[in-house]
Every structure is written in structure tokens, then in C-alpha cells.
Amino acid sequence: MKKQSDETLSLVLLGGSSGSFAIFEEVLKMLDKPVSYALVFILHRGKFSTAVLPEIFRNKTDMTMKEPFHLDPVLPNCIYFAYPDYHLLIGPDGRFYYDVSEKDYFSRPSIDATFVSGALSGIPVKAAMLFSGSSADGAFGMKLIAQKGFPTYVQDPQFADSPRMPLEAIRLYDKHNVLKEKGFYKMIREVLY
């Protein structure tokens, strides 16, 4: 059996906006044993948000959670959240970078910015998932990840609180795996483990 440090780093990228907070909470509760990948959550939040997501979610899992600093290494068995009003990028050197370029779909952090950088980083993407939201952010990044041969999963828009985000992802690329309402969390757990 391989030791944690011997395994190749991979990424699980999760994005969402309105209607995704509760989904993120449930996903975090699933993380009850060590993993060989880094989880990167991109949740749209306002420029002046004072919420520190690792603090809000701290009782959901025992895994290390943080909002990484610029140039922090991407580590396995760790959960990362983007700071408000910054795009969180993943570099080919396996480090995080913050960017303050223009907002994508009126959002910074942008799901597309993180997903595209993850797809181009050279780090394998174990899975990318896109959930409820009211913009098209994430659709392009999901398409790029899928076209690079990595698995992508989109919440079924029919049961998303805000269906536009998953709808746009499916419209742009219709070969994503669709996470149906029945068995939704079971399927996510199977992807994670």
C-alpha cells in the first residue's frame, strides 16, 4: 500500500454560487478519511465578505481547511477556499496564485479562472463539479477540463436552486456527467473515494 506522500497529487475542483452553500456543507461532511488529492472550492461571495469559510465549515470535517496565501503549495488531503475579491489560480509549479484581473460574470473569485488554471496546471484533475448558480461562470472551465480527458460532473439543473450555472455548462458541452437528484450525494461520495 502506498503512503500518502508517495501518491501523485491530483485536484478535485468544486464550483458554485447561489444555492450551493448547503451542497458544499454536505460534501465536507463526506470527507471522513484522508485523501490523496487537494480539494479546491470556489464559492461566489461578495467583495466585502468577512466570512472565513474554513471557520464556518470547521465542524463539518477534520481535514485541514484554509484560504491559501499567494504562492502556498497545493497539498493533498487539504481543502482550499478562495478569498473574496481575488481569483484563485493553480500554477504549473503546484502553487496557488491570486489575481485581481477583471471579474468574470461579475464574480471574483471566478470559477472559470480556477478551473481553467487547474486544467492547464499539469496536475491531474480527479474530478470537477459544478453546482447551482445564477451565472454562466464555470461552464468554460468545465468544458476545458472535460476536453483534457478529466471527469466532470454537473448538478442536474432541474433540481438546482439556481439552474443557470449547470444549464450553461451542459449547453456549452453536453458530455458532462449529470448528477441527478436521486442518489446525488451517493454519487459525489463515489467520486471522492
State the helical fraction: 25-40%
Q: Beta-sheet strand percentage?
A: 15-25%
Write down the domain tally: 1
The rounded Rg comes to 15 Å
Written account of the structure:
The protein is α/β, with parallel strands linked by helices. It has one domain: Methylesterase CheB, C-terminal domain (Rossmann fold). The protein contains six helices and nine strands. Strand 1, helix 1 and strand 2 form a beta-alpha-beta unit. 42% of the residues are buried.
Overview in brief:
This protein has 193 residues and is of the alpha/beta class. The chain contains 6 helices and 9 strands. It has a single domain, classed as Rossmann fold, CATH 3.40.50.
Which terms would index this structure?
193 residues, alpha/beta, Rossmann fold, seven-stranded parallel beta sheet, two-stranded antiparallel ribbon, 22% strand
